[in-house]
Specification:
The complex is a heterodimer.
Chain A lengths: L6 H5 L5 H10 L5 E6 L3 E6 L7 E6 L4 E4 L9 H12 L5 E2 L4 H26 L4 H32 L1 H5 L3 H13 L3 H15 L4 H20 L6 H11 L5 H7 L2 E16 L2 E10 L5 E9 L12 E9 L8 E6 L4 E2 L13 H14 L6 E13 L2 E5 L4 E4 L7 H8 L4 E7 L4 E8 L2 E4 L1
Parallel strand pairs in A: 1-5
Antiparallel strand pairs in A: 1-2, 2-3, 3-4, 6-7, 6-9, 7-8, 9-10, 9-11, 12-13, 12-15, 13-14, 15-16, 16-17
Helix pairs in contact in A: 2-3, 4-11, 5-7, 5-9, 7-8, 8-9, 9-10
Chain B lengths: L1 H12 L13 H9 L5 H18 L4 E2 L15 E2 L2 H11 L7 H10 L2 E2 L5 H10 L4 H16 L17 H4 L2 H14 L1 H11 L8 H6 L10 H7 L5 H12 L5 H10 L3 E4 L5 E4 L7 H5 L12 H12 L3 H7 L3 H7 L5 H14 L6 H10 L10 H10 L2 H14 L1 H8 L8 H14 L5 H17 L5 H4 L8 H28 L2
Parallel strand pairs in B: 2-3
Antiparallel strand pairs in B: 4-5
Helix pairs in contact in B: 1-3, 5-7, 6-7, 9-10, 12-13, 14-16, 16-19, 18-20, 19-20, 19-21, 20-21, 22-23, 22-24, 23-25, 25-27
Classes of the chains: A alpha+beta, B mainly alpha.
């Protein structure tokens, strides 16, 4: 089994704490009547309360789970337990000889994958009902325009009375207009407003950061009024910033797939209004392109966690349209995920901080909505000065690490004072390191 | 940039107050800003902010690092890093799961000559800071990188290899001075003693107790005169610590005085088949208090019995063997009368203090013989430590016998064991537990539930697989035992996995 699946990561797959605990309880060889594994799958039979043992199987390529138990949770405790057991006691599993109930399931999964790909193609070929779709789009546009009118008035009021006056306002001051934007089907603007409320509450150069935000929202609002006049890519970026979603089928059908060995370099989960948003950063070892895969889940739902930092995944990615495309979908995975070994491929990352910042400048010049930019830096060290972590390259240029970053000592420990590869999110001011490549090994934080 | 600063100022104050003409600048940016023909001042300000911010963001420069204090890279490592699986298990323990096994993990890694993954070093160095007993192992397993890291964070100063700054002895804080003194004692005990003797009179009473403790390192008869003089110190903690150290030195005047005090309390009779009767001391005089005897009894003893126990504990038990010409076992059997148990306890404590294993089994056997229900005749912690003092092979035999003949007593002693159980003892205890687990006998269950908490961390991990088989599947009794047994098996299995993972490449 690939070493990327540690017990901690396996437990993060559990749909809830009870399933995680029950899974741990089943991670013991004596609970299983049989245990086996092959290159692509692991399986086991677990004696439950029924007469016949449950048949649990895991397709390691994603991983995907299947169990004959009646539980509605997914993956069920047997799946979690089996996976944990494979990590803790690989020796307990017999090699080879997939039983029919495993082989058939794997075959049916492959078949379904093909059907799905075909369906995507069909869906793109025949739009549901062009007239109805156009009507819905026009209605949405009207609603967003209405919201934008309100937002512009509100923003103008804000700068008329001054940002200093806004600083003392309660959260409801921001929340009211943010909720309005959500109603007007412009949730992206709503999110920006909510974040602005936080900026006003912080110290330092808050007025400057707030003005940046406010100006950006105004730009979005003004831009949307004349969106037809914008180049297609810029219009796509703007629509995404405002909060239009694109159906995955459309993205897959319209884009061209980029096939590469993608290194999974970082993953972050943030809470946004009852919604968990997971950002996973990939970087193509051959194409040299960075990609962002987003996953969303409501509280009770499980986040898609098949992309594990430290893994290399051979896959076809399709990028969302945009002037500087970063967001992507996985169209198809090819084969099993492996562990990042050795050093980063030559195409990955930047050799100096200067080169990285130039790339960032070029990106934001084309797509001003980019908030977090992926930076992979080679040959850098981490340094602590006056209680502040910094990343310094061979030429002596430096980037500031996010104040309050919690893994500074870990990063220093892994780098050991010699040049290492550091991957992180750059927001234009601070770097949030998410992983290090040192001594032939990737360590994710 | 001037333009941006003006925009921020205008926005901060508000356009209703800041009515100056819209800011502008030269060059292409100025041209763009100039073309922003919003209908009102607010719109122009907002649009200008958006444009100038985008311009600034896209054109930002890079800061130069202050290179004046660059740290040298860490040295190359001698040991290999443990496998990723072993590293993940270490991470679990540092995060609190199976945390009690951390010491075992570190010892196993050190003996396999493998080091901890770098990303766990901060947490590991922190564990070494809070748990002093782990420090040596932490340092071994943290490798060169750990030393390098320790030198950069004062919190982990103990890990830094930097040669000891002996000047700290003169001017450091108390904890620094203690650290320096301990290090000097380790290298050259005499030098450390001279240091301490040289400044002793000038030390504040509050600092003295901690400094005395340093003499425990490299303790020898050369330290006796200094320690003896400390028995007259004004601070009780100092007197107590000095008396404690002196009692470890068989040739010290304190030990001689204790022998003189206790000898007359014994009366031998019976010639070849010796019988020993004991009297309790009549009073606790100032001399006894000076030598560290506590007047107020502890642990349910009578006053005078407690004085006897304390004094006996200071006397190396070999003294008695020599005096009566008998082996430990014969002497334990020879003690008669109502205070026999106090004598055993005193001898037991003395055997532990002077690491004299010959006394362990006789005292334990005598104590087991007088055990009533759940009350041990000698303090249970003393007995449990005596079990630990026995030679490993003999201990296994003795405990296996005890599980068979007196499972209640075996449970009490095993519940406090601090040693690793061998294969046979592990199997014996498993067989006993399995024989009980189907019965719903609450008393037996409670007695053994404390043992099961320990057992997973003490049993032979090679037997983890066998240990999992042979338990009842259901039944009234099993409902009672199930969760305790499963926790025990989980800990045992985790140890097996962790030891196996440390071995793998």
């Amino acid at each position: 089994m690939p070493g990327i699946w540690t017990s901690e990561k396996i437990l993060s797959l559990a749909p809830d704490a009870a399933s995680a605990a029950a899974g741990k309880g089943l991670a013991s060889a004596r609970k299983w009547v049989s245990l086996g594994r092959s290159e692509r799958a692991i399986w086991g039979e677990c004696q439950g309360s029924g007469a016949k043992p449950y048949q649990t199987r895991i397709d390691l390529s994603e991983p995907a789970f299947k169990c004959t138990c009646p539980s509605r949770k997914f993956p069920c405790k047997h799946g979690i337990g089996l996976f944990l057991l494979a990590d803790a006691q690989p020796g307990a599993f017999k090699d080879g000889g997939e039983p029919a109930w495993v082989t058939e399931w794997l075959a049916s999964r492959a078949e379904r994958g093909e059907k799905k790909a075909k369906k995507v193609g069909d869906a793109a070929a025949t739009p549901v009902d062009p007239a109805a779709a156009a009507r819905r789009a026009a209605e949405r546009r009207k609603k967003v325009l209405g919201g934008i009118d309100e937002l512009e008035l509100w923003l103008k009021d804000l700068v008329r009375h001054g940002l200093a006056a806004a600083q003392g306002k309660p959260y409801a001051f921001w929340e009211g207009i943010a909720a309005r934007m959500v109603d007007a089907q412009a949730p992206g603007l709503g999110r920006m407003l909510r974040e602005s409320a936080g900026i006003a509450a912080t110290g330092g150069a808050w007025a400057e950061r707030l003005l940046e935000r406010v100006g950006t929202m105004y730009l979005a609002a003004e831009g949307f009024r004349r969106i037809e006049a914008l180049p297609l890519e810029a219009a796509a970026d703007l629509r995404e910033a405002i909060g239009f979603t694109q159906r995955q089928e459309e993205v897959l059908a319209a884009g061209t797939a980029v096939t590469d060995r993608w290194l999974v370099l970082g993953q972050r989960v943030e809470e946004e209004e009852r919604l968990r948003v997971q950002r996973t950063w990939l970087w193509g070892g051959e194409s040299g392109r960075a990609a962002l895969v987003l996953a969303f889940a409501h509280h009770s739902q499980m986040l898609e966690t098949t992309l594990v930092p430290g893994a290399v995944v051979e896959a076809d990615l399709v990028f969302y349209p945009g002037a500087w495309p970063l967001r992507a979908l996985i169209a198809e995975r090819r084969g099993m995920a492996a562990e990042i070994k050795g050093e980063w491929p030559a195409a990955l990352g930047f050799g100096s901080i200067g080169a990285a910042i130039s790339a960032y400048s070029a990106a934001v010049a084309k797509s001003p909505w980019i908030e977090r930019f992926p930076l992979a830096l080679r040959g850098v060290v981490s340094v602590r000065r006056e209680g502040q972590w910094r990343i310094v390259d061979e030429g002596g240029d430096e980037l500031r690490v996010m104040p309050g970053y919690g893994k500074g000592w870990e990063l220093l420990a892994v780098s050991g004072g010699s040049g290492v590869g550091v991957f992180g999110e750059w927001d234009g001011r601070n770097l949030l390191p998410l992983g290090v490549q040192a001594g032939g090994r990737f360590v994710g934080f | 940039m001037e333009l941006w600063r003006e925009l921020v100022k205008a926005a901060l104050l508000g356009t209703e107050r800041e009515r100056s003409a819209p800011a502008t600048t030269a060059g292409p940016l100025g041209e763009v800003v100039g073309r922003l023909n919003g209908t009102d001042a607010e719109g122009r300000l907002l649009a200008a902010a958006a444009v100038v911010w985008a311009y600034r963001r896209a054109g930002q420069g890079v800061a130069k690092a202050d290179e004046s204090q660059r740290t040298l890279p860490a040295e190359d490592e001698e040991w290999l890093r443990v496998s990723g699986r072993a590293g993940a298990q270490l991470g679990l323990m540092l995060g609190g799961e199976h945390g009690e096994l951390l010491g075992e993990w570190l010892a196993a890694a050190a003996s396999a000559r493998k080091r901890a993954p770098e990303e766990w070093l901060p947490a590991l160095l922190h564990a070494g800071k809070t748990q002093e007993s782990l420090r040596d192992l932490v340092l071994a397993v943290a490798g060169e990188r750990g030393r390098w890291l320790g030198a950069q964070n004062p919190e982990w100063g103990y890990a830094s290899r930097g040669s000891f700054d002996e000047a700290l002895w003169e001017r450091g804080r108390l904890d620094e001075r203690v650290a320096v003194l301990r290090e000097v004692r380790r290298k050259d005990a005499g030098r450390g003693r001279e240091w301490l003797a040289g400044v002793w009179e000038k030390e504040s009473p509050d600092d003295r107790p901690k400094l005395v403790g340093c003499l425990a390192i490299g303790l020898g008869m050369d330290d006796e005169p200094l320690l003896e003089s400390m028995l007259d110190d004004g601070r009780k903690e100092v007197r107590k610590a000095a008396a404690n150290l002196l009692s470890l030195l068989a040739g010290s005047r304190l030990v001689k005085r204790m022998i003189e005090r206790v000898e007359p309390l014994f009366e031998g009779s019976g010639g070849k088949r010796l019988r020993l009767a004991v009297k309790l001391p009549a009073a606790c005089d100032a001399g006894m208090v000076r030598d560290g005897v506590e007047r107020k009894p502890q642990g349910g003893y009578g006053e005078r019995a407690w004085w006897l126990v304390q004094m006996l504990a200071d006397v190396p038990p070999g003294v008695w063997a020599k005096k009566w010409g008998k082996a430990a076992g014969e002497l334990v059997a020879a003690v008669q009368g109502e205070f026999a148990e106090e004598v055993w306890e005193g001898w037991g404590r003395a055997a532990l203090r002077h690491r004299d294993a010959a006394w362990a089994e006789p005292i334990l056997t005598a104590a087991v013989g007088r055990w009533t229900k759940d009350d041990s005749p000698v303090a249970l912690d003393v007995l449990a430590d005596l079990v630990g003092l026995m030679a490993a092979r003999r201990r296994e035999e003795w405990l296996i016998g005890l599980v068979k003949s007196g499972p209640a007593q075996a449970a009490a002693l095993l519940g406090q064991s601090k040693f690793a159980w061998g294969e046979r003892l592990t199997l014996e205890v498993l067989a006993y537990l399995q024989s009980q687990a189907a019965k719903a006998d609450y008393q037996t269950f409670w007695r053994w539930s404390a043992v099961m908490k320990q057992a997973g961390t003490r049993m032979d991990p090679a037997l983890a697989g066998d240990a999992a088989a042979g338990w009842p599947a259901e039944g009234k009794g099993w409902g009672l035992w199930k969760s305790g047994v499963e926790q025990m098996l989980a800990a045992l299995q985790f140890r097996r996995d962790m030891l196996e993972a440390i071995k793998e490449a």
